[in-house]
Design goal:
5 helices, 5-stranded antiparallel β-sheet, DUF2993, 31% helix, alpha+beta
């Protein structure tokens, strides 16, 4: 029988037993927290292993597609990861490819995409694939976003002194042009229409202006012809995972491109 101690009102209670009960509860809570922490660590370690396996698979795939890029950086989304492994389905796998580039036919210029972020959703990969590093990884949808540098576009235009920039959400240009009729050089400015045609970014300049441009139809015609000479088709380097270009926006850092695809093999059976 537990020892009893007099309370303030003269009665006897079993205070030590209650204290022992509270202590046991605290210990149990601590153990559960430690166990939960270990499970989280194990989950993240397993995710790290899977990320390396998928990165190797994707690296082999983009090599087969003749895409030049740095080693892919893979992040597996969703938590807990281990339940996704058992199901063989993953909420999201994000792939970061750096220095994506490729030669342009008929030109010494190189179109550069410093970073291409690929977000694959509803990904299927069996446990055997992750364990052996061989097998198929597929995604229901894939979206890629990247930025083409303005330097790459200027190199394709191949006109001295041309500068491109973002201007109120549009692609702006500043360029020097020598006007024979005036026997002087003017600095002209304007904005372009930017559209998508297959794997090309189409940049069209129709009209340029200058503060020093005289009200002379002959001079204006010459400048408009020069504007059309600045127009260019920018072919993107081969995009991995059958990504199809569908949107281009002018940003301060360059031309932001968005591409997408459905039912994509991130890797093929080895």
């Amino acid at each position: 029988m537990a020892d009893s101690y007099p309370a303030d009102d003269g009665t006897y209670g079993e205070r030590p037993r209650r204290r022992r009960g509270r202590r046991a509860l605290v210990i149990l809570v601590i153990l559960l927290l430690v166990l939960a922490g270990l499970l989280v660590v194990a989950d993240r370690v397993a995710a790290g292993v899977a990320e390396r396996v998928v990165a190797d698979q994707i690296n082999q795939e983009i090599s087969r597609q003749n895409v030049q890029a740095s080693a892919p950086e893979v992040t597996v989304g969703g938590f807990p990861f281990l339940t996704q492994v058992l199901n063989g389905r993953y909420d999201s796998i994000k792939v970061l490819l750096r220095d994506v580039q490729g030669p342009v036919q008929g030109s010494d210029a190189t179109v550069k995409v410093p970073e291409l972020t690929v977000d694959a959703r509803d990904v299927t990969a069996s446990l055997d694939t992750l364990r052996s590093g061989q097998g198929e990884v597929t995604a229901k949808t894939v979206q890629g976003t990247g930025t083409v540098t303005y330097d790459s576009v200027v190199a394709l235009i191949d006109r001295p002194g041309v500068q491109l920039r973002e201007q109120d959400g549009k692609l702006g240009v500043t360029a020097p042009v020598r006007v024979p009729v005036l026997e002087q050089e003017l600095t002209v400015q304007g904005t372009a229409d930017v559209t998508v045609d297959g794997s090309h970014i189409v940049i069209g300049f129709d009209r340029l202006t200058s503060a020093d441009l005289p009200d002379n139809p002959l001079v204006q015609t010459f400048v408009n012809n020069f504007a059309r000479q600045l127009s260019v088709r920018v072919p993107l380097p081969p995009l991995p995972f059958a990504l199809q270009l569908h949107e281009v926006r002018a940003l301060p850092s360059g031309l932001a491109v968005t591409a997408s695809a459905r039912d994509v093999a991130l890797s093929e059976v080895s």
